[in-house]
UniProtKB/TrEMBL annotation:
Residues 23-351 form the Enoyl reductase (ER) domain. It comes from Carya illinoinensis. One of its GO terms (molecular function) is zinc ion binding. The keyword Oxidoreductase applies. The keyword Transferase does not apply. Belongs to the zinc-containing alcohol dehydrogenase family. Pfam families: ADH_N, ADH_zinc_N. This is Enoyl reductase (ER) domain-containing protein. InterPro entries: ADH-like_C, ADH-like_N, ADH_Zn_CS, CAD-like, ER.
Length: 361
C-alpha cells in the first residue's frame, strides 16, 4: 500500500499545496527525508512566487503532479548539515533555486550546467532519486544536497534577494553567455515584471545602455526614474519603433504571454540576439527571413548551473542588486496568484514563511 505524503519520510513538514488544476492552495502536511551525509537542512524564511508557480498550480504546461507544493526561490537558515558537508554550517543563510538534482555525469553536469542535464530534477513537482515527489518552498523546512545549496553574503537582505534564485539568474545567465554583459552594449528589456526589472538592474551593472520596451506607457516613469533605464520604447508606437530599427545588440524578451517577435527582430543590429526568457503556453511564430538578412539570432535560456548562480549572487551583493518585492503572509497566497495573473505586482511577491507559516516542529 502506497504511503501518504506525510508518511513517506521521517521529518514532518507543513506547507501549502494545490490539489488540482483549480490552482487553489491550502495547508498541507507532508514529510522531508532525513539529513543525509551530503545534505543541508534549513528552516525556510522566505519563498518567492514565480510566474512558473502560477502555470504549475493550474497545470497549464501539462506536467503538474498533485498535491503540488510550489516554490523554487527558497531562502532560509541552516539548522542541520550532514557529516560530509563542507560548503556551509549551521546558522548560515542559504537558498535553493529551481533544481535539486541531476545525473552528475553528463557533459552539462561536468560543465557546471546542471539545469541543462537531461535528468535534471526540479525543486517541486518532479520525481526524486528515491521515487518520491519533490515539494517546493511554500513550506516550513527544506533539505537538499549541498551541491544545490547557495550561500548568501551577510550584507544581503534575504527577502529582497530571494527572487534572484530564479528571476535573477534567468536574466544574468543569458547576458553573460551571449556576450551582452559588456560596457557599451545596447540592451533591450521587453516587459517590466519580475524578470524584466532585475534584467534592467543587471544590464546596467554590466555597463550597458538599457532600453525598456513595453506595451504600456504607464511603465515609462518607473523604468527611467526608479530602475535607471537609459530610455523607454513604447512597442505600440510605430514611430518610436521605426526610429529604433537596427540599434540593439541584444534584447531580453521576458514576456510570458503569446506575442509577435517580428518587431523585436527588426530592432536588432546585424548579428543581434533576441533571447526569449518567458514561457508562453502556445508557440510563437518565428519569421525566418529577417534572421537571414541580418544574420540575427533568436535563442532561449533557462536559469543557470549552480556555479553561475553563486557567481550571480556574489555579483548582486557587490553591486547592491535586489528585487523590488511585496512581502506577503502565506494565507494571502491565493490572492497573490490572482494578482500575478493580472500583472498586479511590483515586481515580485515574496512569502514571509518564517513569520506566517506555523511550523511542523
Amino acid at each position: 500500500m502506497a504511503k501518504t505524503p506525510e508518511e513517506e519520510h521521517p521529518i514532518k513538514a507543513v506547507g501549502w499545496a494545490a490539489r488540482d488544476s483549480s490552482g487553489v492552495l491550502s495547508p498541507f502536511k507532508f514529510s522531508r527525508r532525513a539529513t543525509g551525509e551530503k545534505d543541508v537542512r534549513f528552516k525556510v524564511l522566505y519563498c518567492g512566487i514565480c510566474h512558473s508557480d502560477l502555470h504549475m498550480v493550474k497545470n497549464e504546461w501539462g506536467t503538474s503532479i498533485y498535491p503540488l507544493v510550489p516554490g523554487h526561490e527558497i531562502v532560509g537558515e541552516v539548522t542541520e548539515v550532514g557529516s560530509g558537508v563542507k560548503k556551509v554550517k549551521v546558522g548560515d543563510k542559504v537558498g535553493v533555486g529551481c533544481v535539486v538534482g541531476a545525473c552528475h555525469s553528463c557533459e552539462n553536469c561536468n560543465n557546471d550546467l546542471e539545469v541543462y542535464c537531461p535528468k535534471m530534477i526540479l525543486s517541486y513537482g518532479a520525481c526524486y532519486y528515491d521515487g518520491t515527489v519533490t515539494y517546493g518552498g511554500y513550506s516550513d523546512t527544506m533539505v537538499a544536497d549541498e551541491r544545490y545549496i547557495l550561500r548568501f553574503p551577510e550584507n544581503m537582505p534575504l527577502d529582497a534577494a530571494t527572487p534572484l534564485l530564479c528571476a535573477g539568474i534567468t536574466v544574468y545567465s543569458p547576458l553573460k553567455y551571449y556576450g551582452l554583459a559588456e560596457p557599451g552594449k545596447h540592451i533591450g528589456v521587453v516587459g517590466l515584471g519580475g524578470l524584466g526589472h532585475v534584467g534592467v538592474k543587471f544590464a546596467k551593472a554590466f555597463g550597458a545602455k538599457v532600453t525598456v520596451i513595453s506595451a504600456s506607457s504607464s511603465k515609462k516613469d518607473e523604468a527611467l526614474e526608479h530602475l535607471g533605464a537609459d530610455s523607454f520604447l513604447l512597442s505600440s508606437n510605430q514611430e518610436q519603433l521605426e526610429a529604433s530599427l537596427g540599434t540593439f545588440d541584444g534584447i531580453l524578451d521576458t514576456v510570458s504571454a503569446v506575442h509577435s517577435i517580428l518587431p523585436l527582430i527588426g530592432l536588432l543590429k546585424s548579428h543581434g540576439k533576441l533571447i526569449t526568457l518567458g514561457a508562453p503556453e502556445k508557440p510563437l511564430e518565428l519569421p525566418v527571413f529577417p534572421l537571414l538578412t541580418g544574420r540575427k539570432m533568436v535563442a532561449g535560456s533557462a536559469t543557470g548551473g549552480m556555479k553561475e548562480i553563486q557567481e550571480m549572487i556574489d555579483f548582486a551583493a557587490e553591486h547592491n542588486i535586489t528585487a523590488d518585492i511585496e512581502v506577503i503572509p502565506i494565507d494571502y497566497v491565493n490572492k497573490a496568484m490572482e494578482r500575478l495573473a493580472k500583472g498586479d505586482v511590483r515586481y515580485r511577491f515574496v512569502i514571509d514563511i518564517g513569520n506566517s507559516l506555523a511550523s511542523s516542529n
